[in-house]
Amino acid sequence: MKTVIVVGGGLSGLQAGVFTAKAGEETLVLDTDESLVYNTSNIQNLVGHDSVSGEELLRSGRDKLEEFGGEFKQEKVESVKENEEGFLVTTEESRYESEYLVLASAGIHDYADPLDLEFEDGVEGMYMMDEHVRTDESNKVTGAEKIYAAGLANTWEYQASVAIGDGAKAAVNLLTDKYGEPYEDHDT
Ligand SMILES: Cc1cc2nc3c(=O)[nH]c(=O)nc-3n(C[C@H](O)[C@H](O)[C@H](O)COP(=O)(O)OP(=O)(O)OC[C@H]3O[C@@H](n4cnc5c(N)ncnc54)[C@H](O)[C@@H]3O)c2cc1C
């Protein structure tokens, strides 16, 4: 039983997983390795980098996740259902259970059909998603308990920096919900 399963290990999912793993929570990130950020090799507007490629960001995100004890598995999530304990996540290879879910799979949500989520229409644009999972201001999925959404699964705001920040925000709010008080992460 994991505390958190993140569906989608692109930028938002990795950042969410890094946060929850660093908090000491059992974290599993499941990913098909098709992040949209592979399309760019020259991100210039991210604080901390003169220029960085999408591939470098993903690599460092996976390394950091594992450094904090989180797990990354390249497996496609086929379905997510509620069960007595929390959630049952089925991939092509295996089944996993978790207390919390973070949906971070950009425009792909068909695996979540059993959860009967609400969606909002996306905005016009060449690379925009058709729809986004409906959430509140804390990235918590509307009408659901213990499910958060991050990145392009949650918002049309289309940039690596936004996805990273949104993953962190989803995780901070998830941890706040779990601990029943505002979650703070201080590095020395
Ligand atoms: C052509 C192009 C150029 C871009 N250029 C820039 C740029 O120059 N600067 C910039 O800041 N941003 C750029 N972006 C935007 C940036 O890539 C996205 O904003 C960012 O990747 C969104 O992060 P995310 O986590 O929401 O989605 P992603 O990073 O796409 O991650 C979603 C992840 O979910 C996984 N997934 C999906 N379904 C499943 C499933 N069923 N099971 C398991 N895993 C699943 C995918 O494999 C993927 O890894 C560009 C995007 C494109 C398409």
Walk me through the structure.
The protein has helices spanning 11-22, 54-67, 160-179, and strands at residues 2-7, 27-30, 71-73, 77-82, 87-91, 95-103, 119-121, 131-133, 147-149. It is an alpha/beta fold. The protein has one domain: FAD/NAD(P)-binding domain, CATH 3.50.50.60. The strands form 2 sheets. Strands 1, 2, 3, 4, 5, 6 and 9 form a 7-stranded mixed sheet that branches. The chain has a two-stranded antiparallel ribbon with strand order 7-8. Helix 1 (11-22) packs parallel to helix 2 (54-67) and helix 1 packs parallel to helix 3 (160-179). Flavin-adenine dinucleotide binds at residues 7-13, 30-37, 39-40, 43, 76-77, 104-106, 108, 111, 127, 151-152, 158-161, 163.
Low-confidence stretches: none
Output the CATH homologous superfamily: FAD/NAD(P)-binding domain
Mean pLDDT: 96
- Large-scale geometry: globular
Number of domains: 1
Give the termini distance in whole angstroms: 31 Å
Bound molecules: flavin-adenine dinucleotide
Q: Would you tell me which CATH topology applies?
A: FAD/NAD(P)-binding domain
Order of helices and strands: EHEHEEEEEEEH
What is the second-level CATH architecture? Answer: 3-Layer(bba) Sandwich
**Helix run count:** 3
Query: Largest sheet, described in full?
Result: 7 strands, mixed
Cα-atom radius of gyration: 15 Å
CATH class: Alpha Beta
Total strands: the figure is: 9
Residue fraction in strands: 15-25%
Q: Structural class from helices and strands?
A: alpha/beta
What percentage of residues falls in helices of 4 or more residues?
10-25%
